[in-house]
Design a protein that fits this description.
Two copies of one chain form a homodimer. The first copy, chain A, is an alpha+beta fold. Chain A has one domain: Glutamine Phosphoribosylpyrophosphate, subunit 1, domain 1. Helix content of chain A is 31%, strand content 24%. The longest helix of chain A has 23 residues. Chain A is globular. Chain A starts with a strand and ends with a strand. Chains A and B meet through strand 3, strand 4, helix 4, helix 7 and helix 8 of A and strand 3, strand 4, helix 4, helix 7 and helix 8 of B.
Chain lengths: 321, 321
Amino acid sequence: MSLFTIAVHGGAGTIRKEDMSPEMEIAYKQGLQHALEVGYAVLSAKGSAVDAVQAAVVSLEDNILFNAGRGSVFGKDGKHEMDAAIMDGSNLAAGAVAAVTSVRNPVKLARAIMAESPHVMLSGAGALEFAKLKGLVLEDESYFYSPFRFRQWQQIKGTDETALDHDVKLTDHAAGKAAAEKKFGTVGAVATDMNGNIAAATSTGGMTNKQWGRIGDSPIIGAGTYANNQTCAISCTGHGEPFIRAVTAYDVSCLMEYKGLTLEQAMQLVVHDKLLKIDGEGGMIGVDAQGNASMVFNSEGMYRGVKNSKGLNNVLIYREA
Amino acid sequence: MSLFTIAVHGGAGTIRKEDMSPEMEIAYKQGLQHALEVGYAVLSAKGSAVDAVQAAVVSLEDNILFNAGRGSVFGKDGKHEMDAAIMDGSNLAAGAVAAVTSVRNPVKLARAIMAESPHVMLSGAGALEFAKLKGLVLEDESYFYSPFRFRQWQQIKGTDETALDHDVKLTDHAAGKAAAEKKFGTVGAVATDMNGNIAAATSTGGMTNKQWGRIGDSPIIGAGTYANNQTCAISCTGHGEPFIRAVTAYDVSCLMEYKGLTLEQAMQLVVHDKLLKIDGEGGMIGVDAQGNASMVFNSEGMYRGVKNSKGLNNVLIYREA
């Protein structure tokens, strides 16, 4: 039995201790810990890595604090358009959904696309149609409503500006102080199971006041999400456009496969060198088939956590020495 | 002044000489030659690689023989949903559009997204809205109508089957004999300009009877399209799903950057080894900054052509010894 591991993230960006209330810090950490627990429970019950990452991401999608599923930001027309992807490193199977509305758990839709369609990526109204066909739970707009997200949107609607989740100042809102700083709202999980299989999943509500059906890196296999037992499972969070241009997640895999770098070395090189050269702010979490985990970011903070079968349990927000 | 080169493709698949009428063979070759000429004209007038690939792809989009732009296949609801991408290897700028309707030249929309939006990828109705904002030429359904494509669709509409362009038998149609065989309908171009800058562009009408907003590899940066002056510019054509899972175009780039393979070596390895292992049928065209070009496929044929400033001019369809 090999070491099994789960890691999760809840977004990266300008997240500073001095801007965070103690209550919010606790709430974010509890959310991350809960995601770790549900993912870990799958792994310790001999479940697969792909089931574990799905369970962890569902937990974060259901938590209104994070920009995915229930907590998704408002798009330009007041709707919530969500993206998600999942990939199974044992067979390179993948599923992804872009610009879908109404689906309670977009990561479950990505899983259904992987498992029950001949396709990898579906989008828009067609993806919703597929979700209905597969009996996925749908929600109306009130489910996705939060006063905080609504105020974010009200501040920039009517303009052509977009905001990367918490990039909107919300000085009038108690919970908003920390969140008001620049943050890239995405959630994700990576896991190594007892059999040494690995998987990755990512989900996001995108950018506040998003328009034109913009698709970020999260649902792009190779950019925001990638998994391959031979190398690594990666879930990214950051400014989506540079992450797409850098083919970020697969770049880590190639540096391991073709240059022999370790997971940690490859993630450090991509996040602190290659991404920075094209103004790619954000970070990523990763695991390999041996159960090693790494969490690397070039922004001020990243909501993140890791738990493994050797007893490691860490939930972190800021940079730590 | 370095060697300048343009290569184009018009799809790959089961394309056999014995199934092709002499007239159709001439028509396909003329279409490919025309695309080479317009791309080459840009390069020889000291134009950029990105302008050259756009011009070549526009020429193929405007040609009803190829499954892109005007010749796009019918989707499930009788509409034409198109995907395209373009990438500039000199600065890693990229633009892509997925599941857009009505736009005469989706590659021009991808270019506008790259040049005039803060985003890399737009989709669906939102992408059409952006196209209108930028004044791109729109067409009604009659522009995209061809009796041949309509009959393809009629043969499988009402079912849940999809067909990869010419995968539908059309024994009653003179032009259909060659095209009736399995073929992956996509067009693309790659180019090296006088300054040693390279670029890639890809455009497609997807699969006949396509549903659920399916997105293939063509508009995915790293999968169907990629360009980086340090390595290569690649445009793929094939069964989109395995090409997405293999992050095909960027894999060629990584094999060159991290393992030191030549363009030709990297393309051979990806097409004949890595793609085949996951049933990835199709091919790709590529150039590097020195003006070397390569065209590699694992299917029976690929509509393709290459032209360079040393006088090379080749237009091919089948496997050649």
